Structure formats: C-alpha cells, structure tokens
Hints:
This protein is of the alpha/beta class and 436 residues long. It folds into 3 domains: 4-135 and 303-338, Rossmann fold, CATH 3.40.50; 138-299, 2-Layer Sandwich (Dihydrodipicolinate Reductase, domain 2), CATH 3.30.360; 349-432, Alpha-Beta Plaits (2-Layer Sandwich). Helix content is 35%, strand content 26%. The protein contains 14 helices and 17 strands. The protein has helices at 13-24, 26-33, 64-68, 86-95, 105-122, 138-145, 160-172, 176-185, 194-197, 200-214, 233-241, 303-319, 366-376, 407-418, and strands at residues 4-9, 37-43, 59-61, 75-78, 99-102, 126-127, 151-157, 224-225, 244-255, 258-269, 281-288, 292-299, 351-361, 381-386, 395-402, 405-406, 423-432. The strands form 2 sheets. Strands 7, 8, 9, 10, 11, 12, 13, 14, 15, 16 and 17 form an 11-stranded mixed sheet that branches. Strand 4 (75-78), helix 4 and strand 5 form a beta-alpha-beta unit.
Amino acid sequence: xxxxxxxxxxxxxxxxxxxxxxxxxxxxxxxxxxxxxxxxxxxxxxxxxxxxxxxxxxxxxxxxxxxxxxxxxxxxxxxxxxxxxxxxxxxxxxxxxxxxxxxxxxxxxxxxxxxxxxxxxxxxxxxxxxxxxxxxxxxxxxxxxxxxxxxxxxxxxxxxxxxxxxxxxxxxxxxxxxxxxxxxxxxxxxxxxxxxxxxxxxxxxxxxxxxxxxxxxxxxxxxxxxxxxxxxxxxxxxxxxxxxxxxxxxxxxxxxxxxxxxxxxxxxxxxxxxxxxxxxxxxxxxxxxxxxxxxxxxxxxxxxxxxxxxxxxxxxxxxxxxxxxxxxxxxxxxxxxxxxxxxxxxxxxxxxxxxxxxxxxxxxxxxxxxxxxxxxxxxxxxxxxxxxxxxxxxxxxxxxxxxxxxxxxxxxxxxxxxxxxxxxxxxxxxxxxxxx
Length: 436
C-alpha cells in the first residue's frame, strides 16, 4: 500500500522535529497506522537556510498555498503559527478535501469554531493534539480516555516559560526581569515575551481544554487573563512561609452557576503534586466524577515532544481514512449538535481565597482599620503576618490570607485599603486555590 503523503507548512522547530520523528520511527509508525506516512512537500520562507534535519525526498516551496493545493498531498500539517495566513491555509485545505493537523493553539482557540464547522461540512478531520501541552497527550486523554466521565475541572501549568521563570525566582531568589533575560537567552522566551508572561498563550490552551472537557464552544474572548510580571521574590518567599507555592495556572471549573475560565498566578499548597512541577515542564490536573483526580505531566514544548503529538495525530487520521465521517471522534469531544450553552462566569462573580500584601505604617490601629474593611465586606481572614520593621523604615509588609470570597467584594476591599492614609501604594493580590 502506498504511503500517505503529507504537506508540511513551516520548517521551524516543530516542522523539523516532525520530519525527524517520521523518518527515525518510520517502521514503527507504519506498523501502528497500517501504512507509511511521509512528508513529500513543505513550505518555507527561506529555501537556502541550513537545517539540521533530513530534507531528502521533500519538495520545498516558498508558497504555502502551493503545498495546500498540491493534488498529491493528502494531509496538511500547519506548523507556522499565528492566526493569518494559517486560518486561510487551513480553510483552503479543508475546501480541497484534505485532512489537517495543526499545532497552532491561537488558531484553534480563536477560529476553531469556524474551522471545525467547515471540516464537518467537508467530511475531513482537523487534529490538534500538539496545540496544548506539547508532548503530553492531554487532548486525547480528555476527549477519549475520560469520555465516560462528567469532568468538573481542568487546571494546570500550561506555559513552560512562566513556570521556568517562577521556578528560578523561587530557587535562586532572583528578580522577574533577571530570570526573564535568562529565559530569552536560553530560547524559552521570545524577544517579545508578552504572549507568554502576560498569560495569553496559556489562555489559548485553556480555551481548548475547557471546550473538550465541558462540551462548550471555544470562547477565548471570555477567559480572564493575568500574567506574572508583578510577582516578586518577596511574594514567593511569603507564600512559602505559609506552605504555598506560586504557579501560573489555567483553571477551568464547572460550577452550578456557570463555567470558570481563568488564567492567573495562584498560590497552591506545596504538598500538591502540581506545586512541585518545576522548570519548563507542563502538568494538567483533570477531575472526573468516575475516575477522580488524574494528572498528566511532561514536556510542554520542544522539537521532538511537540512532533510526537503531531505524528500521533497523523497516525490517527490515517487510521480513520476508511471510517465514515459521522462515526469519527468529534473534534471537541461532544457531538457538534450537542454543545452546551453554559454561561462563562465573569471574574467578578468567581469566588476564591486570596493572598494580600500591603505596606503599612507601623503604628497602633492600622491593622484594626484593615480588618474592619475586610469584615464589612464579608471577607474572613485565615492568617495574618506582619514582618518586624527594618530600622529606619517607615512601612512594614503585612501579609493576609483570606477565606474564599467573590472577586467583586475583594475589588471593593482593595480599593478601600489603598485609600487608607496608613497604607502605602498598591495592595498586591494573588488568588489561592487548593486544587482539591
């Protein structure tokens, strides 16, 4: 039987890894898929750029649409990133009746509803395992392995750059800016790191995880997003004194009143497995009613780990060649006509516990004013810590851990606290979650 021919869009890190894995494991892949899988065409902006992976037998073109429209290409693997021209390339491949594999989380999170509708109409598959958590097969685990469960929550470290930065800040007592510079030098962060450190990348991934976990449409515009740029080594140290670690988490949780979709720094108990996932690694905790809590850990990026997911999608598509489109695994886990219209809760209506850090004048009555404001807004204090004043310093740090309260109440409290004469500057607020 003739091998399946793949057209690759993009010869960067993931594209090169995909070619290498397909060639290195060709025999094993053919045994799994029932046919060989080979890359016959690829697109790249620079044809003369030296590359450290084999390109023999591959026709390289500068125009990605020439790959998408080539009659010999049966599956298109979109690995160029961004939303345009990726969106139009994928839609063109679908119009041509070609199956698609993509590692593009932004594309799926923002345009996935349109893309999946087009794919369903044309009877083709769009596979996207590599779009979330690199080499961790989290999409397949939720969509297929946990299909018998009602999933109540998905939470995890889904951006390796932010996890690397927070880990180094904790272990080496270094500032955010210092560690960010190292992350850029090591290639973990881009020259413009905003998509990672501001939480946008994690929000793309959380959008996808929530859709397949809860059977809701992709709704990136409704995710609450907060990055790690304001986290200090002092916050990390205070958190550890209370038995917590700060991680940048994506959290999707189904509540009676609606679905929570939020990305932000979070204090989690240091005894939790996920609190001990360090460096550039990813980890995702999924809770189902039948299976209970399950955790998935591994490399969230890199050439071979991400290529592992791309190739797995290629194998799945080849296996499904002879399957009636109506009997294939749905793109978003649930049948397209059975997606839920559950409300996405605004952040103001979500309840969490909080870590608060403020700079207060060291004099009697100041803490009484602080606790009065919290009490009037129904905010219960779980713990409080006031550091000894440094000689000559006018202000001392006061740390408060609260019990769970709605965000809108905490917003009011912080506004009133910052207006107090004896509180200097802004109040630092980090949400807490037991992940229980």
